[in-house]
Amino acid sequence: MKIHKNFPLSEVLWYKIGGKAKILIDAQSKQDILDALNYILKNDIKKICIIGAGSNILFPDTYFDGAVIRIINCGQNIKLINGHIVEAYAGEMLDNIIGFCFQNNLAGIEWAGGLPGTIGAAVRGNAGAFGGEIKYVFESAEVVDISKSKPEVLQIEKNAMNFSYRNSIIKQNRNLIVLSVRLTLIKVKNSEIEKARNVYFSNINYRKEKHPLEYASCGSVFKNIAQEQGVQRILFVWPDIKNQIEQKWHGKIAMGYVINRLGLSGRRFGQAQISEKHNNFIVNLGGAKYSDVMEIINTVKKKFSDTFGFSPETEIEIIN
Fold first, then answer.
1. Which residues carry out catalysis?
2. What is the pTM of this model?
3. In this predicted model, what pLDDT tens digit does every residue of 251-276 receive, in sequence order?
4. Domains of the chain and any CATH numbers
5. Residue-wise over 223-253: b if at least 16 C-beta within 10 A, else e?
């Protein structure tokens, strides 16, 4: 556990946006997380914020008078159980886990190639891409519940996770913090692992080609439209996209497409801009402020709501 005082969060968050935190605690193991929580209790710190790699968070520019626990990895804290179950510390990066799986001839999570986040955050938000989702390989998670006077370590099985599109019980209940995760993968032959590697690298190359990686961002800002009611309301206005929903977007409606069709591609406020390369990214052109990004988010929400009669949900975590 390492403690930093008056730390500028813009230095560790992918958006390069964020004010100073009174305390930043780097937790590189399960015990570090528990020690960090004890430190917070002993020092009577009231405000707590939990982050992982910081790749999906928009943090205010103002001073955060509390403690930020950054759950990060310190090397490969991953192990194999029973030949096909992988256990990993919450701060382990997804790419490291995928690499470990390939080394042990395990497939099933290669679709996540290039997703810039930790496994704890991926479980919390039921991360997904290219039709895959964490819930399909998730077995269980060890979590700590901080709602009581003394933090309590619990085990949560898959049937209690309440997984849905980019959501889980961990995201719904902010008192739960992921310590470690177990994933169930598929043991395959060498030829199948090569196919999995091809998927992995193909997805990484897709991101390099289609995503504005040259700028700081938090990836997709809005959730794609997944609920049937929302899909139908958009189809009522744009009936011509039915085939794309069925054949291209895995039954959902891509927000990048929606933002572009609403005429908002390239919209800029201050130093924040809707990327013209991928319209569901709002990029930091250099020196963007929290308010710049929020202005664009609210602009998209209003235009969307005026057109379809409901508001899209953000996929990034916005700290108020």
1. 166, 220, 315
2. 0.92
3. 999 999 999 999 999 999 999 999 99
4. 2-71 (3.30.43.10), 78-207 (3.30.465.10), 214-318 (3.90.78.10)
5. bbbbeeebbeebbeeeeebeeebeeebeebb
